[in-house]
Amino acid sequence: MTPDARTLIVVADGRRARLLEQPRIGGSLHDRPEWLSGLKEHHEHDGPSHITHPGDARDRAEKAFLRDLAKRLDDLNARHGFDQVILVAPPRALGHLRRGLSTAVARKVIGSDAHERVDATIITLQSVVQAARFADAA
Predict the structure, then answer these.
(1) Dihedral of the CA atoms 120, 17, 101, 28 (nearest 10)?
(2) Residue 2 lies in a domain
């Protein structure tokens, strides 16, 4: 493991996301809201109006958002050349996100945390990233 590895940290749920960069392993995290610019938030009412189960609309909106986020990650990876990726999302969103990742990005995923942390502080996320790295090394 090279200490100068650039890591992209993806923190998401089914509606919102945060992208952070860690320029070197063990270094500080930097929020990068500009990397999400233009990413459309999908809403439950964006689908067809004839849906009989409200959960179906919510599920479709979540999948669409996470699919769009995965595409954004592929673009960012192509532009910035990240060495590693860490995913942080609740279990269901984490699964949808993983399925949407390109092969290039999926190969760089070194760890994950299956919790809702979109509103977490940088200090909390720093601990989550460290724990994800440690769990991967174990």
Answers:
(1) -50
(2) no
Integer angstrom CA distances of residue 65 from 7, 13, 62, 70: 22, 9, 5, 9
CATH of the domain at 76: 3.30.420.60
Model-wide pTM > 0.90: no
The CA distance from 97 to 12, in Å, is: 9
Q: Please indicate, yes or no, if residue 42 is contained in any of the structural domains.
A: yes
- The share of the chain scoring above pLDDT 70, in percent, equals 86
Q: Which of 91, 83, 131, 130 is nearest to 107 (CA)?
A: 83
Check: CB of residue 61 under 8 Å from CB of residue 50: no
Domain residue limits at 109: 7-137
